[in-house]
Amino acid sequence: MTRPRGLDLPKATPRRGAVLLALHYCGRELARLRRLTVPAMVLSALGSIGLDHIVVGGAVHDGHLQYPLQ
Fold first, then answer.
1. Please, are residues 11 and 5 in contact by the beta-carbon 8 Å criterion?
2. Are 26 and 17 contacting, i.e. CB atoms less than 8 angstroms apart?
3. What is the pTM of this model?
4. What's the CA gap between 34 and 27, in Å, rounded?
5. Residue 17: its pLDDT value, please?
6. What confidence tens digit (pLDDT) does each residue in 43-64 have?
7. Phi and psi dihedrals of 11, rounded to 5?
8. CA dist 16 → 3, 19, 20 (Å)
9. How many CA atoms lie within 13 Å of 50's alpha carbon, on the beta-carbon side?
10. How far is it, in rounded angstroms, from Cα 58 to Cα 64?
11. pLDDT digits over 4-22, tens only?
């Protein structure tokens, strides 16, 4: 079997294989524990977004940042 021309793919290294294997096992565990992982991921994302809004909103309120429309 030959590769198409212009497609130079690097050969698989042991490190790459180990990373792919670890990602495979982690993905399988996430799928198996879906009832816990989905709320955990969603709530952590919402918490991060909320924290950013609090920090940026506080900085704007204190006068450290200016609104771009002013």
1. no
2. no
3. 0.48
4. 10
5. 86
6. 999 988 888 777 777 666 666 6
7. -70, 150
8. 20, 5, 6
9. 6
10. 9
11. 565 565 666 778 888 999 9
What residue ranges do the domains of the chain occupy? 36-70
For the chain, the maximum distance between any two Cα atoms, rounded to a whole number of angstroms, is: 65
Tokens (6 digits) for 49: 């977004």
At 48 the pLDDT is: 86
Q: What is the DSSP string of 1-67?
A: --PPTT--PPPP-HHHHHHHHHHHHHHHHHHHTHHHHHHHHHHHHHHHHHHHHHHHHHHHHHTSS--
How many residues would you count in the chain?
Answer: 70
